[in-house]
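Prompt: For my understanding, could you write out one protein's sequence and backbone structure tokens?
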Amino acid sequence: MTEIEKQHPDWNEKDTRLSVYGRTINVINSVLFSVMFKEEELVNPAWFKKVFSDELTLKEHGYYLANYTSFLRLSYVTILFSAFEVFFRDILRVVYPNYSKNDNIGTIIQFILNDNDLSKYCHVFDILRILRNSLHNGGIYNERKGKTIFYTGKQYVFKKIKLSL
């Protein structure tokens, strides 16, 4: 029995809250293990000697570290948002069975948060959603209109850019 199950004995094993907590914990643990690996192994040039036949220059070593760090950040955002998406879709299915299942996840999240007096968190999920969608588009914000989000005293500006060949 997990700590969460002990604290909430009224939740059954099919409770979506347990599922989302479990997914979130898995994501956090995986990121933690990856960060530990990076900090304990990848910072050590000797580790690279085991993997690469040629010795890396300091510049190459830094390049690999930077790429791996970027990979971790992108993976974390994508996987974490996916766990939240499943959670919100489960809530929609169970609590709001008559709500249209065809709406996009941004609309669903906004509806559920607003309906539960949690609208102050809409911006957090909107930023995560935009980041996740941009990652799916090669790191490019690709929505029809630009968007500016003000959250915790900061301004987040998302602009669509036109690519050319």
Notes: The longest helix spans residues 58-95. Residues 38 and 68 are 8 Å apart (CA to CA). Strands lie at 147-151, 154-158. The mean pLDDT is 84.
